Amino acid sequence: MKKWKELTENPVPPSRRSNDQGTLGRKIRLTANFFPVEIKNPRKNLYHYDVEFKETFKGKPEPVSLPKKKRMLIFEKMKESYPKIFNKAVIGFDREKNAYSVGSIPDIPKKGKVFEVNVTEEGSKPKKFLVAMKMVNHEDLSTLYKVLQSTGPREVPLNILQMLEVLFHQSPTLKFEKVGRNSFYSMCGEFAPATDIGGGKEAMVGFFESLRPIGWKKDCILLNIDVSHAAFYKVQSVLDFMVDNLGFNEYDFLNGLNSHKQAKLKKELKNMKVQVTHTHFPRTYRVQNVSQMGPDRQVFPLDRKDGKGEVNCSVQKYFREQYNCQLRYPKLNCLKVGPEKRNIYLPIECCKIAKGQKVNKKLSDKETAQFIRGTAKKPSERLHAIQQMVRQQSFHTDPILKGLEFSISDQPVPLDGRILPAPMLLMDKEFMPDRGVWDPRNHTFFAAANLEVWAVANYAASFIKQDKLRRFLGLLQNMGRERGMGIRPPVLVRDFQYPNPEKDLRDIKQKHANVQLIVVVLPRRGDYYPRVKKVGDREVKVVTQCVQEGNVDKCAPPTVGNILLKINAKLGGTNNVLGVNSRPIVFNTPVMIMGADVNHPRAHDDSTPSLAAVLASVDRYACKYVTEVRHQHHRQEMIQDLKDMTKNLLKAFYRTTRRKPERIVMYRDGVSESQFLEVLSFELRAMRQACTELEAGYEPGMTFIVVQKRHHTRLFCSERDGTGRAGNIPPGTTVDKDITHPTERDFYLCSHQGIQGTSRPTHYHVLWDDNELTMDQLETMTYAMCHLYSRCTRSVSIPTPAYYAHLVAFRAKVHIKELCDSENTSLASGEQEIPSDADMTNAAKIDFNNEISTKLYFV
User: Fold this and answer.
1) Which residue in 111, 115, 108, 90 sits closest to 100, CA to CA?
2) Is 829's pLDDT higher than 70?
3) Which of 13, 246, 467, 799 lies at a C-alpha separation of 20 to 30 Å from 592?
4) Pairing between strand 746-750 and 733-735?
């Protein structure tokens, strides 16, 4: 067994990039959506200025909290107001507190300078802001240039890349709607028309732009540009939005909203921006609440004209007298807008949805389907759109890039990739997948489970009658026997006219103590799924299989086949394993393959905890897994209890195999590049501590690989090499040079067959490797692990343990749904008591006191 490499207090990923590239597989000519950026003059200095905004309150300047758009507006107004200082300056602002310039700004002294800026916005009174700028430091562009020229170990200066990226983004930020750090959208459909997806929402087309620390040539870095899509709220009246999105009608408008609809509207509109339509100055406000009364009864304090204090005035009266506005719906609830401490009420009929608002809430299933249908592009179409966007940006005329003396090519990077050979798979006999897909109909499962005691609860009894249900169950049993499963008739098949999962599943378990599986037929509507899963997983500790009523009605063999894949895996069976000669080299000795992921709450939820899931294989084929789940601090990415979780998983491995793993391979999902060193210093250290605390001197070789799907690298091939109707790159396509990190070990692998749109390869970054695996071994192992996913008969886009970790974390979210449901309540607004830590632990944690943790209950 190899000894661990030294893990210092501040570990740095080993620089192993040099000559370690894969050689397996046949070559394929590819094009990547990266565009070379030539540095023509490296003798440039980049200066960093700290920017602080203040506003005068009672004659005293005070720091002020401003939205990013407002900060950029004030910054640009400052540049206009002081032309002698800024006219010749090549400067970019990150909309927060950092400005970067090419060369120093001579009129800003070392001690800094304060600029007075008057801003008038949307008809409001002019406001005076103070903008303080002070030089913090400067960087020499030649530092980056030397790194690109070097062939030995070197460290990429990420601070210089950050400066350059802000400068690159300055022009599109002023022209387009910026979303996140790197995406830009045209609200007027400059790139492509918006697609209506229903519910008062539309899919907008934009572009993604990011500089990458990649030396394609020695005097170049690369600019990653991609088509991006996002859902935005349509600019329409709030009344129309209520009809489109919430199903409200004229009766609601005439009579006002009941408490249920009032809460529903508040949930949808809270924190959204609306624009008034009753004045020539269309001011924009942020919605805080929905009032209980309409304009006819909603009052607010108004200064009397005779100067004798305040008087309560109704919103209806104020709008009639102040704006000559006769309201059509005086009983329809008002919107409370603006700062919480001010009493600003607006009639809903005088408001429209402000433009440029991205949808942060979860789309409905119908909206999601429309979004995908409207935005999916074939690879050839996507590449053409990307090249068109590059031409539209006219980089050669951008004053910032002229000041930098950068030249950007309008041609994407060509490169060579490789198509890895698919692994042989084994069911009752060995076979090779055909372009990532295989047909199980002529095979039996590698290890088929027996189903002797099971029950069926029909929650869709009004639609699925007994004859339809019996037909479906008959097909399920017959196809299961064809796959090698021994399936006896269910011990219970019952219609439930008034479903109550909490009672029903307990009753079934009480009457049939040895029940192995409970199948639940779900109706189209209702919240039964999370309730069934919570009771089954946590209380009665029986695996459940939910089936939609539509699938029972259609009774299609392919659907039933997919359900059997899940059932066999949940009962402890194994659908398929890797063929004898296709098993990775790490399988030659006892190895534990791990997966980890953290599920975070949605945007605007600032209190629901994050959920960490870690699982590990406990068999020689890496097909059976045990799970560990914990809740942790809100949006905390590092897995806080990883040491204890790893200990439990190692114990489970030993209990099952009677051996200790000599190697551990971790596939860690969901970590961004900025967190790599933190992952090494915290999570890898925690895993090592788990080993040594279990047994002194126990040092299994560890390979730690980060799995990234959220990136914008796309690979395109010729029509001749493409697969499927879309013509995507073939499964097994891998790239580990030209567009990868210049010093660290990473590679791109597309392990699945793209069916719709353009395939996204997965990016793998090898943070640590005690096992001293070659790139060929790392790539083939990763590709092989994408063929063991129990829910389908095709290779998937990420390795199975990482995929399973994602499913486990999502299931934990289902388990805590009743305690903190960010979809239906707002913990941040104090409307629901935040659950105790003990309650959260009980709801989220599935440990070895629950035997279901050793089953694939989550598939």
Assistant:
1) 90
2) no
3) 13
4) antiparallel
Owning domain of residue 488: 448-570
Position 828 pLDDT exceeds 80: no
Place of tokens 């950026």: 37
Q: Confirm whether 362 is domain-assigned.
A: no
550 and 488 share one domain: yes
Q: What is the CATH classification number for the domain harbouring 335?
A: 2.170.260.10
Tell whether 618 and 544 lie within a shared domain.
no
**Mind listing the pLDDT tens digit for each residue in 491-504?**
999 999 999 999 99
The CA R_g of the chain, rounded to the nearest whole Å, is 30
| pLDDT classification of 831: cutoffs 50, 70, 90 | very low
Q: Looking at the predicted structure, is the pLDDT value of residue 184 above 90?
A: yes
Quick one: 469 and 391 in the same domain?
Answer: no
Q: Are residues 733 and 831 in the same domain?
A: yes
Alpha carbon distance, N-terminus to C-terminus of the chain: 35
pLDDT at 534 over 50: yes
- Same domain membership, residue 244 and residue 221: no
Give the per-residue pLDDT at 823.
Answer: 42
Average pLDDT, the chain: 91
CATH number of the domain where residue 474 is located: 3.40.50.2300
Distance CA 627, CA 490 (A): 29
The two most distant CA atoms of the chain are separated, in Å, by 95
Q: How far apart are CA 187 and CA 204, in angstroms?
A: 8
Residue 809 in domain: yes
Burial degree of 338 (CB within 10 A; 0-12, 13-18, 19+): middle
Element (H, E) at 51: strand 45-57
Q: Which phi-psi region, left, alpha or beta, contains residue 25 (left: φ > 0; alpha: ψ -120 to 50)?
A: left
Average pLDDT over residues 117-129: 80
CA nearest neighbour of 670 among 662, 679, 661, 660 = 679
CA distance 590 to 178: 50
Average pLDDT over residues 18-42: 91
Classify residue 18: in a domain, yes or no: no
With CA atoms as reference, report the closest residue to 79 among 194, 182, 4, 170.
170
Confidence of residue 832 (pLDDT cuts 50, 70, 90): very low
Residue 197: CB partners within 8 Å, gap ≥ 6?
203, 231, 363, 367, 370, 371, 374
Q: Tell me: the pLDDT tens digits for 195-209?
A: 999 999 999 999 999
For residue 755, the domain's CATH number is 3.30.420.10
In whole angstroms, what is the distance from residue 621 CA to residue 788 CA?
A: 9
Using CA atoms, how far apart are residues 79 and 644, in angstroms rounded to an integer?
55
Domain co-membership, 246 together with 229: no
Tell me the residue type at 501.
P
Give the number of domains in the chain. 4
Instruction: Show which of 546, 570, 594 is a domain's final residue.
Output: 570
DSSP code for 567? H
Q: Is 229 in the same domain as 243? A: no
Residue 237 DSSP code: B
Name the least confident of 8-17, 530-539, 685-694.
Answer: 8-17
Q: Is the domain of 671 the same as that of 793?
A: yes
Q: Is the separation of the CB atoms in 227 and 388 below 8 Å?
A: no
Residue 435, in any domain of the structure: no
